[in-house]
Amino acid sequence: MSHDHPVLQWKGKQAVYPPPLQLVQSALVLPEEHPELNGSRLIEGENLAVMSTLLADFEGKIDLIYVDPPFLSGKSYRVRTGRKEDSRHPENWKTAEGFQDEWRNRADYLNMLYSRLRLMHSLLAETGSLYLHLDWHAAAYARVLLDEIFGPDRLLNEIIWTYHGPSPIRSAFKRKHDTLYVYTKSKEYTFNADAVRVPYDAATVKTFSSPKAGFGKRPDLARGKVPEDWWYFPVVARMHRERTGYPTQKPEALLERIIRASSNSGDLVADFFCGSGTCVTVARRLGRRWLGCDISPLAINTTRRRLLLEPEAGGFGVWVGRDRQEHHALHPKIEITAENLNVEARLTNLEPEALIALEFDWDFDGHLFRSRAQSIKGWRQETINTRLGHSYPRAGNYVVAALAVDAEGQTGLATERVQVG
C-alpha cells in the first residue's frame, strides 16, 4: 500500500483478523415497566474476535464509535468493591481484578491497537465518526495509525479533555489532560453543532452586550457557542453520584457531548472497550441504539447493573462468545410461595449484602434467560431486596429462574418449578 504521508513502522507490524466466533444470546433484559427492545447488545468477549464476527451484520452500519482502550500505562487496575472504606488507606480496600495495561513492548501494544482500529473503520457507516480516547503514553503513535487507516484529511478534531486532581509529580508540569482524536469515515459526516452549544462566559456576554463595544457583528448571545476543542469536565471522584468503583471511569457529561454531536436519535453507537459502561448508558438515555463489548465479566456486570438502574430506557440483549465457558461461582436457591395465580420468590443461600443484582425469569425455558423483574443495588445502597412477586396470566406449571450477581462480578443461577392456579 502506497501513502503520500508518513506511516508508522515497527518490528512485527501486522493487522490480525481472527476467524469469526459464534455469539450466543444468553439473556434478554426486559425491565417490567419498559420492556421495549431496539436491537441493542451487551457482549462479553474478546473485542477483536467480536468485531470480526459483527462485520457480517454491521459492516458500514455503525454511526458512532467511541473507544477508551488501554493507554500503554504499564499498570494493572483493580475495581473497588467495598463500601465506607477509609480513602487514606488503599491497602485496606476490598478490590477485584479490573484490567491489565501491561505489555511486553510497544510493538505488542501497537499491534493490538492497529488491528482493532482497522476493524472499527470497516464497521463505521459512511457518515460515521470514531472518537479514540488516549493520553500521552500512546496518543502520538495512534495519530499516525489513524492517518494511515482513515487518511490524514479525515481528522476532524484533536480534543483535549482537561481535569483537576491530585498529582505526585514534582519534577515536571502535572499531567492533567487526555487526548481524543476524532476521525470521520468520509467528507459527509454527522455533526450537530446546535445540540452541544454552551453559554458564553460572563466576560464575553458583558463585552458584546455593550452598545459601545464597537464590533461589527455581534454573536447571538442567547444561542450560545459551539465548544472549542479543549473541554473541561471533572473526573468521576470518589464521592461522585456516578461513581461505580471501576478504574478509569469517564464522566457522563463527556460522553453526552460526544454522542449528541456525532449521532442522531435512533443511530447506532458502539464502544468495544466498554469498561464501566458510561458510553452505552448515555447512548441509551439519549435514545440511541448501542453495542457494548468487554472481555471482563466484571465490566459486563458493572455495565448491566448501571443500565438496570435506569429501567425506563428500555430493554437490551446480552450476548457471549461461544468460546467463553459459562461458569457460575455462586450457588443461590429459591423459595417460592404461591396463592392462586400469584407467587413470591425469595432468594436464599446468599447474603443480600454481598449482592449487587438479582433478576428473575418467571417462565424460564432452560436456554435463554428472560430477565423480567430486577432488584438492583444502587451505588450507595447497603443491600437489595431479595423478595420479588409476580402474577401469572393463567394457571399452569412454570419454572422460575433467578440470576444473582455479587460485587466481584460472579454470578449464580437457581431454578425452581411452581404450579399456580
Report on the architecture of this protein.
19% of the residues lie in helices and 31% in strands. The chain has seven helices and 20 strands. The strands form four sheets. An eleven-stranded mixed β-sheet has the order 9-7-8-6-3-10-11-2-12-1-16, with helices on both faces. Strands 17-15-19-20 form a four-stranded antiparallel β-sheet, covered by helices on one side. A hairpin with a 4-residue loop joins β19 and β20. It is globular.
Task: Name a few traits of the molecule.
421 residues, alpha/beta, Rossmann fold, Immunoglobulin-like, 2 domains, eleven-stranded mixed beta sheet, 7 helices, 20 strands, 19% helix
- Report mean pLDDT, rounded to a whole number: 90
Number of domains: 2
CATH-wise, what's the superfamily of the largest domain?
Answer: Vaccinia Virus protein VP39
Helix share, percent: 10-25%
> What is the N-to-C succession of helices and strands?
EEHEEEHEHEEHEHEHEHEEEEEEEEE
The coarse overall form would be: globular
What's the total count of β strands?
20
Instruction: Give the CATH level 1 class of the largest domain.
Output: Alpha Beta
Strand arrangement within the widest β-sheet reads: 9-7-8-6-3-10-11-2-12-1-16
Structural class category:
alpha/beta
- Gyration radius, rounded: 24 Å
Q: What's the assembly state of these chains?
A: single chain
Strand content: 25-35%
